Each structure stands twice: as C-alpha cells, then as structure tokens.
Amino acid sequence: MSDHDDDSPPFDTEEAPAMAQQADSRRRARDLYWQGWRLTDIGELLKIPRTTLHGWKEAEQWDKAAPIQRVEGALESRLVQLIAKDAKTGTDFKEIDLLGRQVERLARVRNYEQTGKEKELNPNIERRNAGPKRSRREDKNFFSEDQVEQLESAFRDSLFGYQQRWWRESQQRTRMILKSRQIGATWYFAREALIDAITTGRNQIFLSASKAQAHIFKQYIIGFAHEACGVELSGDPIVLANGAHLYFLGTNARTAQGYHGNFYFDEFFWTHAFEVLNKVASGMAMHKQWRKTYFSTPSSIQHEAHSLWSGERFNKKRPKAERAQFDLTHDRLADGHVAEDRIWRNIVTIYDAERGGCDLFDLDELKLEYNPEEFANLLMCEFIDDSHSIFPLAELQKCMVDSWDAWDDVKPFSQRPYGFLPVWVGYDPSHTGDSAGLVVLAPPLGDKGAFRVLERHQFKGMDFEGQAEAIRKVTQRYNVAYIGIDTTGIGQGVYQLVTKFFPTARGINYSLDSKTQLVLKARSVIGKARLQFDSSWVDLAHSFLAIKKTLTASGNAVTFSAGRSAETGHADLAWACMNALVNEPLEGQTSSNQSFIEIYD
Fold first, then answer.
1. Are 276 and 217 in contact (CB under 8 A)?
2. d(C-alpha 236, C-alpha 88), whole Å
3. Residue 445 — very low, low, confident or very high, per pLDDT cuts 50/70/90?
C-alpha cells in the first residue's frame, strides 16, 4: 500500500515555494561554480552560507562533473530563463531555437558515448553509407555533412518572423503569398529551395516572367552556398552531388514539359498569359511529393491570376450550392490560412514585415515617397483597378518580353551593351519627396518597329550635379542620339548642367498641351505593342498603371497625373520613358527623324 493512499500530499504545499527557491539557488550556485567562481564569492552574491554551498558541492560532486554535463547545465538554465519570459522578442525566439538544437546535439553525443557508433553523432550516416560510394574529388556541387549543418544554421539564423512562418509551412502542397515589395521573398525562397534540395534530393524549379528575373534566384543560391560554407556552385541547371537539379526558367517554361520538382513562381501576378504558363507549371509538380509556391506583389484585379487567388477559379468548377466562401482579408491571412481549395494563403504587408523584425525600412520616408494609392498597392498588398488607368495592364503585358531570349543584339553586362547603335534617353528629375527616373530607349531599327527599354533607373536624394552626372555616365556607355528632360521647376537646373556636355538635349516644360502630347504618343506606341521591356520590370509597368486622367485645378480641362505633389511620389519611370518616346513624331517614324540621328552620329 502506498504511503499516500489517504490522498494527502507528499509534502506540505506551504513549503513548496521555499523548496523551489532552494532548488533554483542550488542550480545557480552550481552554474557559477562551473564558471570558475569560488564558493566564498558565490555565497556573497547569493546570500548563502559557505558551509551550505560546500555541502551542495560534495553531495552533487560538482568537481567530478564531465564537461558535457556542465554544458548541459548551462543550456538548461538559459532555456528555462528564456521560456519563462512572458513577452519574448524575436532575438529570444532565435536563441531558444539555437539552444534547442544544441540540446539535440548533446543528446546525440550521449548516445555515442553509450554505443560508440558514428551514426549516433550523424543521423544521416546510414543513408550515406547505404548508397554507392563516390569519391569526393569527383563530386561536383558537393556538400559535406558539416557544410550542410553550417548551411542550415546560417539559414535559420538569418530569418525574420514572417520568413520563419514560411519555413514552418514549407511542406504545404500549395502556397500563395501576397507580399510587400523588397521584404526578401526571392532571397528567402532561394535559400529554402537549396536547403530542401540538399536534404531531400528533390528538384527545384524557379519560374519568372523573364530569364533575367529567374537568374536572380541563381545568384542568391550561389552567394548563399559560398558565404555559409564555402561551396562554389556551378552549372545551368545546377546539379547537386545528390542528384537534385535546380532549374532557372523564364517564359521558355511553356515548352518545359519534361521538368518535374518543387516550383517557385515569382511575381506571378505580373506574368503575361498566366493561365498558359500555370498549366505547364502545375504539370511539373503533379506528383504528390512536389510543392508549389506562388509569391508576388499584387497587380490588377483584372489579371488572370486573380481568379486563382480569390477562389473564383475553384468555385467555377462546382455547383452553386457547393461553392466555398473565401476570406481574403488581411486579418484572416496575416498568419496564413488553408482554404477549402487546400491552398495556404498569406499576406505580408510592410507593417507585417516590420513587426516580424525587418528593420530595413524607414516607413515615414516611404509614405512621403509614394502617394497613398502607390503605398497601398506596393507596400500594403492591395490590388488596383486599372479600368481607370490610361495604360491598362492588359496592354502593358503585351509589351513585356523575356529580353534575354528576345534581344540577341543587346549585351547587358558588356561595357557597351548596345554597341554603337543610337539610343534615346528620357529623364524625369527628382522633386521633393519623390525619386528621379531615367530610361534608356533603343529606337526602332526599321519603320514601325518596336522601341526597347534597355535600362531603367531610379535615383533618390541626389542634387542637381548628382542627377546630371548619372545622365553623363549613360552617354559614356551608349551612343546617345537624343536626351529629353522635364524642365518643369527643379528640372531646369538638371537640364542646364546636362547641356554643358550634351548641348542638343531637349527641355520639355510640362503643360496641359505637352503632357497630352506625351500621353497620346505613348498610348499609340503601347496600344500597338511597339514598346518592349523585360517582364521582370514590374516597377516600370506599375509606373504606367499609375497614370490616370484627371481634371485641372480649374475643372475646365482634362490632364494626366499620378498623384504628384510636393509630398508624394509620381510615375517617374513612365514619364521618363515618354520623354524619350516623344522624339518620334505622333504619326510615327519619319525620314527627317532618321536624318537627325544620322547627322548626330
């Protein structure tokens, strides 16, 4: 019979707090002793008699404790301290995760001490030994066990809170993420994919609107492997030593019927002919072992991908009585949610990123740089209705091409990307609170040919001299035949400096008539799909989308604007592009215009 079958407690509950306090004091004293403190100093710090400390030391044999036991004690104390905190910071969570992994590592050491088998130290050793033996010298893109551990540690330690959520949900069959600009999504998913490829051997496929954008994944992956563990990855596709293939595809993914693996679809809300490309992409990941990840900043509600995001596509296939209700509000999706179509959806705004530990932004400055509509779309994940835009997304998408495949005569990484063929430059100068836009435009090589945007740049915080110097550097890399600059207000200062090294620069003073001429010319060019720019340049597309028809201050006439004021940004890249396009007459290219280029050359 138990000594406590009368249901009485094994000790007086009033003594429990005192016993817990004594146990805590004993643990703290032991940890300090193992750190090299003398018993006398420990007693003075903790207000405990030296004789008591000596009794604890002898009873628990502190001096005989092995190094691993001392480390385990320190880990235990720190973990208990962190777990007990009510309000934990992101740093606390990272430390808890790190300490937890050290506890797991020490447990493997304990098992190794008992069995002496190497597999206890490395859980992957059996799988490695079971496979065919290969010489490490012959392995290309090889990661050793230590390097894999370094890579995984560097990966986990680099994540913000919202990226940790993406990692926790990485085994979802389908993820769709609506995100703010510049929060490190491409950077994160490149790392996630590499970790998955190394640890599972699964193929990874990166889809983007253009090959140039897809290769950003490749740059991140190569950089991560080199920085974290010194491995130099190479090849296209990258083939790891375990057989996993990493493919980087642009629009040519439409013909990539043979690929299979996990796929990552970057900026899918800006892709032309999304339905066609998505059918091929879905086929790549048809087997249940593969994962599909879509992530993008929002574009227009008229985009083909919106029906997939909203659940409309799912409901179309079902009787009205069986259709699901999709809650797409930020409150519902901020932490992620799996809807009835089994897609895990997540929204990460600029504020969510900040709360997740991302301190890369100055939100007050961004509010000044972007007007409210741009801020809501680019940073708060709100879709736009482009039915009121002068340049609808459907027309702009016809101008978006995979420049790496389409332009054989353009070498973007050479000293002279376009050789000695003439280019036109459009510039929209920086005003208070916004950025300056610069566009390098290749005019048509034949009658009614296409204009090609070779480069686009945005500058912020530069004075007159800095802006003029940016234009001068372009003239050193290209055979510039024309420069068009907005000279309204502050632009006059930039124009005066540019004319010192390019006397024939054209100043364009924005008025009702001149803006109308600029927009009509651009409408004609874009409407006929005579403008081409790389599909990954969503900032240029968005800049055109932002331009709307508005009334003048008097209300008596129609003008065009993008919410520009002293406090807000404006569609600087679009206006810069139009400042270059206007060099061709409204009716199209003429012989006199061609003569101007030839004479200047």
1. no
2. 43
3. confident
